[in-house]
Specification:
By secondary structure, the protein is an alpha/beta fold. It is built from 4 helices and 5 strands, in the order βαββαβαβα. Helix 1 packs across helix 4. The chain starts with a strand and ends with a helix.
Length: about 160
């Protein structure tokens, strides 16, 4: 059975809720096990992730509007540090962002910034805890990107 590693940070529980429901969906519908790594539980520890992984994170920014100002990441930086450590970013095939659409330009801005900094694609987004429809929409995108990334690794 294939196993997909999901590296994420969850502060309020919304991202954790999405990740656990997403992992259950992958198991039930695609026979894929998931290894969940919640960065919040690591207390700033890092270690090499040798397998391909997907990153997920909410957006927490300090003030501003997300265009001219207000794009300073707060609270989720341990995920950025984890991805940067040990060149883990080289095994990340994409990122999914979450946020609150009420914040307009700041919606999922952290995921967009990670994608730009590390050179992996932002695959999808969802609002707050995400819905079952979000999981069904996002799963094929993730599986296609994972397959393409793995195929690229093998060539």
């Amino acid at each position: 059975m294939k196993s997909l590693t999901l590296v994420y940070v969850s502060l309020s529980g919304n991202t954790h809720s999405f990740v656990t429901r997403f992992a259950r969906f992958l198991k039930e519908k695609h026979n894929i096990d998931s290894r969940l790594i919640n960065i919040k539980d690591l207390k700033h520890e890092t270690f090499p992730v040798k397998e391909d992984f997907l990153a997920l994170l909410p957006t927490y920014l300090e003030g501003g509007n997300g265009l001219d100002n207000g794009d300073t990441e707060i609270l989720t930086t341990p995920l950025r540090q984890f991805i940067a450590a040990h060149d883990n970013y080289k095994n990340c095939f994409g990122i999914i962002g979450s946020g609150n659409r009420n914040f307009n330009n700041q919606y999922c801005l952290s995921a967009k910034q990670y994608a730009e900094q590390f050179g992996f694609p932002m695959l999808a987004d969802f609002e707050l805890r995400g819905t079952s429809a979000d999981i069904e929409r996002i799963a094929p995108i993730v599986l296609k990107a994972w397959e393409a990334f793995g195929a690229a690794d093998e060539s």
